[in-house]
Here is the input.
Amino acid sequence: MTLIPGRMTHLIFFALFCAATWYATNRFKVTGLVPIRRVTGLDAFEEAIGRATELGRPVHFSLGRGLFDAEHGAQTFAGLAMLRHTALTAAKYGCRLIVTNQSAQAHPVTEEVVRQAFLEAGKPDAYNPDDIRYLSEEQNAYVSAVIGVMNRDKIAANVMFGYFYAESMMLAETGNFVGAIQIAGTANTHQIPFFVAACDYTLIGEEIFAASAYLERQPVQIGCLTAQDLGKGLAFGLIIIGALLSTMGNSALTNLLKK
Amino acid sequence: MVLTQLPIFVTMFVGIVVLLDFWIKQDGLILLSRELMNWGVIISAFATGLGGANLLRIHMKKLQAQKRDAFYSIVLLTALIGYTLIGVLLRSTHPWYVYIFNNALQPLSATVFSFNAFFMLSAAYRAFKVRTAQATVLLVSAILVMLGSVGIGEVIYAGMPAVKSWIQNVGTTAGFRGVTIGTALGAIGLSLRVILGIERTQFGGSGTGGGD
Here is the structure.
């Protein structure tokens, strides 16, 4: 049993991240104090779903590609946390929630998340399994089906969280055409500009992973969030030192990180 | 109790095995990890069946209720069942299967994708309105990149392609890398919570299943 060469840095960084999370979680349990900056997109949830309820129109939710097994699976998990929050808020207000799935993998999971959220909100009868729809794995077929849903059901709020490809622009613009308040979040850097241009509120990159901590403020979530910030500080420091060393022709840091 | 704890245990076991396989070279671990990933593919195939069943159920109900747009359900069910039968009975290499794919699915797909051009234009029109300082930066950058990408930009100012390259290679790349580092850290944190059974949203539970 040996360590695979070239992955030692990953292991050390992962161990440091785990240690930082553990430390920050325990610290938060004792002090209860960790300031989190405001994320307007998350604050706008109540407003968006409240408006939909007043108008008597549904809320639409999409997880995007919605795969669990690909490298962007973490974004799908982050999207599920937002789906739960959306479903809880929709159930609280008595608002209809339509979830469209592009991934068959995500479909049964979204059904369970929404069902449990309605149950938790004390409105199990309001849960309609027909509103959790699997549409198509094929990107353009999915987009055309969602465009149809948005127009026919005249959605008042459109929430999109997860990993998106080119469907991001088509869904966001259709949502805009039907007059929906739009809240979106993705970490796919190629799609972020589309969401920024077309949506009312956009969560960028790491914000989608911080969303559950922002909304629920549980110790482990806060611990992870703090570890993320420490990790960013470490990355920033390494970038500065690495840039200085490389400028001076020293590749010691680069070689160390390759181990 | 078993029903709620078993999925968490399975997630934890699979997550730890695949994670260790990333770092440790050990024949047994490699075999186990590959096997678990193959099971993932099989489970995905079952999920596709569930998705198909959901489509059938919803559109059959629409037909039974004779809703206003039931016609679309007829089209969908005909295409779904008909194309599946052709694929299963005649195989995906049969000329009928290939003909439908090349002459129906492909053109329809290309048509929908081409909407993107119009959607981009309308979104850009709204985004480029100078309302805030950030919108102004976006507008100026976009104009410079567009001018740097076409011949007329070089006629106006010879260094325009270089300005475009600088915006794309330095400004945009730096921003994207910042987002990528943050995203990677966020993904590590979330994955850790999922593997340790702390994040349980995927089972319908709350975000913290006892890790606090």
